[in-house]
Amino acid sequence: MDMLPRTDDPALLVGSDTFDDAAIYRLNDDVALVQTVDFFTPVVDDPYDFGRIAAANAFSDVYAMGGRPLTALNIVCFPTGVLPLDYLGLILRGGLETARLAGATIVGGHTIDDPEPKYGLAVTGVIRPGDEMTNAGAVPGDLLVLTKPIGTGIIATAIKRGTASAGAVSAATACMTTLNRDGAEVAREFRVRALTDVTGFGLLGHLTEMCRAAGVGAELWFDQVPLLPEAADLARQGTVPGGTKRNLEYVEAWTDFEASLEPWERLLVADAQTSGGLLLAVRPDATPGLLRALQARHTLAAAVVGRIREAGGSLLRVRASRRQ
After folding, report:
1. Of the candidates 63, 98, 127, which is a domain's last residue?
2. Does 1 have pLDDT greater than 60?
3. Which of 75, 165, 222, 299 has its CA 20 to 30 A from that of 7?
4. Cβ of 4: how many Cβ atoms within 10 Å?
5. Judgement on whether residues 170 and 249 belong to the same structural domain of the protein
6. Average pLDDT of 99-104?
């Protein structure tokens, strides 16, 4: 982020300084734009599901800021002459279907010929200035709530290696194609202090950003972290993507892992997610009501996975189990 040019534009309400999920730019006292972009290579074999996943992942950044997606532009890289154009049609149809579910309109896009297929969206959302939620508001004592299980990076690697079961593929696909809209609406209802989505930097990486933005530390309880089916077994067997390993190497310098945690367990909480859930920092007194609201909306998880603490010592502490 240090390589990005700085701006002193007063209309930029949220930029890159806090490592937030999207930028927010004020148009007037009533409307601000929420802008983000994301695209990547296929994580599943089915092109229609790939389109759905990539779109859900892009919309997630708007939800993580408290915004409402409005329009989107397709970003497409496709190996013309290598894969049938029908595949591209299925990818775009998957993205269009997810946009419809999000209440957004795909208004165009850009396509280039590329040896490896890639797809995603540039998304514009709206929010009222002052209603934005960022990753910078957590205070000591807040509880950390996660709205989706983790393990999509590990299962995607198993898919590429041909070792993922049909059940694991189905569960991971359902997770990655689910919009974070319901979790974001609950977060707005309960005015959570801080919010981010868990994607490529993994749970520990995004929690690191939340702590640094707020000047606090955090404790994570491994036994409370929801996992996708078979993710633990695959990790134990060594089916781990390179991105997950790099995530763990990155956070190890400021993370205190309890000695009893196995190497594969450490990798799981660093697993690089695609279209992961929301991570919320919630006042303790508001947490029971928020969990009930998440459960009523049938979010894929509603788990208290840790707490925010005062800064000091290691930035992050990962414990094998929850301790009072």
Report:
1. 127
2. no
3. 75
4. 9
5. yes
6. 98
